[in-house]
């Protein structure tokens, strides 16, 4: 099935906007916020740029969302953890595009 770039970007935005955890200050944060997506700051960040605490939060949130607890976060180094988070984000986006997951218009309150 062919997807337009707009549909792909919407699916990725949905995953990034609905992946949430509590940061060190007990504030709810999304992966999109951590990456500063949509802030027009001219410096898009990559998942590899995130601090370990944020990577752990995103990884655990994605594990819960995907019901996939095969690898404990404590056993992963930072590079492997960042790679796993990216893989999980893209897998969730693929589910959305195939229509087997959450609605593209769903957002966190």
Distance between the termini: 31 Å
What is the mean pLDDT? 84
Count of beta strands: 2
Q: Quote the beta fraction.
A: 5-15%
Largest sheet: 2 strands, antiparallel
The order of strands across the largest sheet is: 1-2
What count of helical segments does DSSP give?
4
Radius of gyration: 14 Å
- H/E series, N to C? HEEHHH
Backbone shape: globular
**Low-pLDDT regions:** 101-109
- Structural class, from helix and strand content? mainly alpha
Classify the helix fraction into a percent range: 40-55%
3D structure, described in words:
The chain is mainly alpha-helical and 109 residues long. It is 50% helix and 6% strand. It is built from 4 helices and 2 strands; from the N terminus they run H-E-E-H-H-H. The protein has helices at residues 5-18, 31-34, 52-66, 78-98; strands spanning 20-22, 28-30. It has a two-stranded antiparallel ribbon. A hairpin with a 5-residue loop joins strand 1 (20-22) and strand 2 (28-30). Helix 1 (5-18) crosses helix 4 (78-98) and helix 3 (52-66) runs parallel beside helix 4 (78-98). Mean pLDDT is 84; it is low at 101-109.
Give the helix/strand layout.
Elements: H1 5-18, E1 20-22, E2 28-30, H2 31-34, H3 52-66, H4 78-98
Antiparallel strand pairs: 1-2
Structural key phrases:
mainly alpha; 2 strands; globular; disordered C terminus
Brief characterization of the structure:
The protein is mainly alpha-helical and 109 residues long.
